Amino acid sequence: MSHHRILRLAPGGFTLLALGALAPPGASGQTPPDTSRVTVTGLVYEQGRGIPISGAWIRFAGTDFQARTGDDGRYAIEGLQRGAYQLEVDALGYRAIREGIRILRSGELTLPMEPVAAPMSPGQPSRILGRVVERETGNPVEGAEITMADRLPSQISDRRGRFEIGTLPPGTHSLSVRFLGRAPLRAEMEVPPGGGALEVEIRLAVEPVEMEPMVVTATPRNTYLEEMGFYQRRDAGLSGTQISRQMLTERDPRSLGDVLAVVPGLRVLPSALGNFQVRMRRAVRLTADGGEGCFPALFIDDVRSQIGWLQDLDPARVEAMEIYTGANAPLRYNDACGVILVWTRRGERGLGDG
């Protein structure tokens, strides 16, 4: 026995032939979902004349299931769960259908619609019955503003994109449609004499938005420095001096002494054979040789090292440096005289533990 039979609209509502019984009056909500899926196909046609209606929307309220009829008035909705639904059918120039329906199995649902427009008579004013939709998808546009040049106030399309402008004299009328994000549309409408309704569908296209050019500059971060907290300390604004690899490249120093010589709070003292000593300018204590200032602590790749090793470290091996005077260094490196942190280009550890 075939389950694909026809369900027609009767004066009292839908009559069950194959799809299911009518939902009880006032019933709301959907029956518990069934894992079984069904397919509903059918035809939408004009009651009385029997001609197919193209562009009609068939929806099951509260769900994403919907379809639009083609030129032959036919539609198909697949994957619908069994249960009770509120059926909505809309077509320009026809009375909307709002009915409760229970879907039990796949079948064909034939939907006759009653025309809204009455036969024209010489004494009856004309009107425009319109619908605003998206040009790309055909979906209705709610909230569009429709204005006639010779009439106030403006009309606003409803949630189905529909609007109506009545009591129009015959002749040419200028109609404008606006909606945010859509290109405005202006059209001339020829309203026929003798009453009746002019049906129009207005398709709004997306309006391109011209923007100023935007330039994004990205500076890559060294993974090793990221892990060692270099950028975190820089972004936190600690009161120290940070020297990046780019700065070292631009200065092209012969030794790290050339770099440290320009750092506020440091003294770089030349010694024999091109060597140098590094001391803090603010004397916290006197050095063993009676010199002014004190020797800062040195960490190379997070390992405490001897301060004298700076003179043997090739600047080309250094990725970045941090210099903190006095007690301004991060807590884990804090020293009364200050601290110098050196990060090599490959994180070369094992240079000494001082």
Overview of this protein structure:
- The protein has 354 residues and is mainly β.
- The chain is 7% helix and 39% strand.
- It has 4 helices and 25 strands.
- Strands 1, 4, 7, 10 and 11 form a 5-stranded mixed sheet that branches. Strands 19-24-25-22-23 form a 5-stranded mixed sheet.
- The termini are far apart.
Topology, pairings included?
Layout: E1 6-7, E2 9-10, E3 13-14, E4 37-46, E5 57-60, E6 66-68, E7 74-81, E8 83-90, E9 97-103, E10 107-109, E11 111-113, E12 126-134, E13 145-148, E14 155-156, E15 162-168, E16 171-179, E17 182-191, E18 196-204, H1 223-227, H2 230-236, E19 241-243, H3 245-251, H4 256-260, E20 266-270, E21 276-280, E22 297-300, E23 303-305, E24 318-325, E25 338-344
Parallel strand pairs: 1-10, 4-10, 4-11, 12-18, 22-25
Antiparallel strand pairs: 2-3, 4-7, 5-6, 5-8, 8-9, 12-15, 13-14, 13-16, 16-17, 19-24, 20-21, 22-23, 24-25
Observed structural traits:
mainly beta, about 350 residues, single chain, five-stranded mixed β-sheet, 4 helices
Summarize this structure briefly.
By secondary structure, the chain is mostly beta strands. The chain has helices at residues 223-227, 230-236, 245-251, 256-260, and strands at residues 6-7, 9-10, 13-14, 37-46, 57-60, 66-68, 74-81, 83-90, 97-103, 107-109, 111-113, 126-134, 145-148, 155-156, 162-168, 171-179, 182-191, 196-204, 241-243, 266-270, 276-280, 297-300, 303-305, 318-325, 338-344.
